[in-house]
Each structure stands twice: as structure tokens, then as C-alpha cells.
Amino acid sequence: MQAASEPEVVQPDPPPSSESELRSAGAPFDDKDADIIIQSSDNVHFRVHKLLLAKLFYGFEDMLGASTVGTGDVQASLDGLPVVPLSEPAKVLSPLLHMLYPVPCPDLSDDWPTLLTLCMSMDKYVAKFYPSAVIQALTKVASTENGPGPETIYVLACRHSSLRGLALSMARLTLRTPSRLDRVPATLLVGLSATQFHALFDYQNRCLRAAQDAMDAKDIVKWLPVPELPGNSTCGTNGCSCLYVDDLDGYAWEIEDVLGPAEDDVLYRKYPCQGRLIQWLKAFLDTAHAALRTNISGSAVSDTERVVAALTEMSKCEACRKSEAPKLVRFVEKLAMHVDQAIDVVPFQGL
């Protein structure tokens, strides 16, 4: 198996050659009331408020001595304000510091290296919480074609308690292409606990079992009336050449009483009945069952090629061809929904 490549991060720019290269980050980082200046590695100055830094980052709270301006790692001053030089370039500090203000944060979902570096910086300065803009960007990038994948975002989300919801949604997203974190670079796995590591695999396995159980024919006739089972009504009739492979104990509905003229004024009675699992339907269920190992979701059932193959096989029987195609299409839709519902109730344990 090919090892995951190390993530690309935004590297600090070389230091400027002279003070003439100092420049302002512009609004909203040019406030005259700012009481501290954050200097990027490429000499861009961000005028911000120390109180806001301390409210979002434990690291700045410690660095600046919480209430005393000019303490900690402050190295210089400009216009009477203390200057704190950081190792991150302006490209990373800008979205990081935008979180301090009620202004739109830049969308980094199309720039994974910068988004990753931003998250690493938030870890470095011990963010107290992750703003919604960052969570939205991580959610979006997880599904992009050339993105890091939901496993990587799951690992990042496990680092912070405020990202529990993101970790859960990423765990669910991994079901579409289950993997063992082999696509996550080793450097990002640092800090992931054994419990969190195991939790993802355990969740995938339990979801797989739930989906497989939901697709078992004997389970299907517990919630689907036997008359709606494709092939059941034609099996054994004149003109049906299909083999059946199993008897199924299920149920059906019959009208017990008509209470009024309206369509809803009818009382139905549920009664037990037996159905038959026909060969071409079993073949469809078997292939969908196998597909769950690489796609734990209802879409493994409703895959177009798989449905077309079942329709093609069914059409070889004249009796089934005439009546069962619409029934099969409806059956696939209901079964896919049933599989997803079975997965939805599987709890994620370990965070």
C-alpha cells in the first residue's frame, strides 16, 4: 500500500532585507485603538486588540501576561505599541486574526495547504474554540476531488473538543470509502489517541454490520409487505421461468372494514403470509451486499449499474419483464432508504 505523502504546509517567507519592507495588513487590522501589533514572518503588521487575542487563544493569553501589555515574547515597539513577531506568513495570519472580528473570514476551502497551516497555528496558539468559518471550510474541503479526504479532517477534528460535531460528520463521510487512515500523513496522526484511532474503525465495522443486516432478505420482509417483493407475485405462475431460492415468512395487508367514503376511511388488517425469494433478486442483493465493503451506504443498493444489471437479468423472464420492473425500481428506493436509516442509528463511541 502506498504511504500517504506528507501534507504541504505554507512555509514562512524569508525575512525582509530592510525595514522599508514593513507594510500594514490593512482593514480591519489598522484600527487606531489597537493596543498591540502582530508581525508576520514576511513583515506584515496586524494592529489588533490584546483583549480579543486573549479571548480566543490561550497561547496569547499566556504570552502577553493576560492584562499587562508589553510582557512575554514582545521584542520591539512601533508607534508606541508592542510588536510581537510570529513565524507564520501573512497568508496564514490574516484568516487567523480575522476570527477576532465580526467580519467575513476568507474562504480557504479551495486552498488546503493554507487551511491546514491555519489549523496547525490554531493548535500552536491553543485556540479556545474553532469559529464556524473554519469548520465550514474543513467540511467543504473533505469532499473535494483533490482534497485531503474525510479521514484527515477527522484526525484534525479529534484535536479539539469544540470540533466533536465535525469529527462525527467526518466519521459518517468515511463510510462512502472506508479506509484505515492510510491516506493520512503520519505527522498529522501525532496527538491522536488510541481510543480515537480505534473509534473510527469500530464505527465503520458496526455500520457495515448494520447495513448488511438491513439487506438480509429475512429482515426485508419484516418491514416490506410480501406483495411488494420483486418477483414474488410472478414466481410459479404460467410463463415464469425463474428459480426461487428461499421461502420468506412475512406479512401483507388486507381491508378489514370500510368506515366511510373517503380513501383514508379504510381499516386495514396485517396478516402473516409467505413469500418467495427469486434467483435474480437474490443475485442483486448479493452484489449489493458485497459492495457495502467499499461503500457503507444506501447508495450501494441504488447504484445505477447494479440496478440495470438486475433489470437485464429480470427481463430474461417474460412474466417478470411485464410486471416486475416498476416494482424493482420502487424496491431499490425503499431498500436504499432502509439501509441508510439502519446506519443512522449506529452510535459513534470513543470521543
CATH topology of the largest domain, anyone? Potassium Channel Kv1.1, Chain A
Q: The biggest beta sheet, please? A: 5 strands, mixed
What is the number of helices?
13
Helix content: 40-55%
CATH superfamily of the largest domain: Potassium Channel Kv1.1, Chain A
Beta strand count: 7
Structural class: alpha/beta
Mean pLDDT score, rounded? 86
List the domain count as a whole number: 2
Kindly, what is the distance between the CA atoms of the first and last residues, rounded to a whole number of angstroms? 28 Å
- Beta-strand share of residues: 5-15%
Low-confidence stretches: 16-20, 66-74
SSE sequence, one letter per element: EEEHHEEHHHHHHHEEHHHH
The assigned CATH architecture of the largest domain is 2-Layer Sandwich
Shape: elongated
Q: What is the top-level CATH class of the largest domain?
A: Alpha Beta
Which sequence of strands runs across the widest sheet? 1-3-2-5-4
The radius of gyration over CA amounts to 30 Å
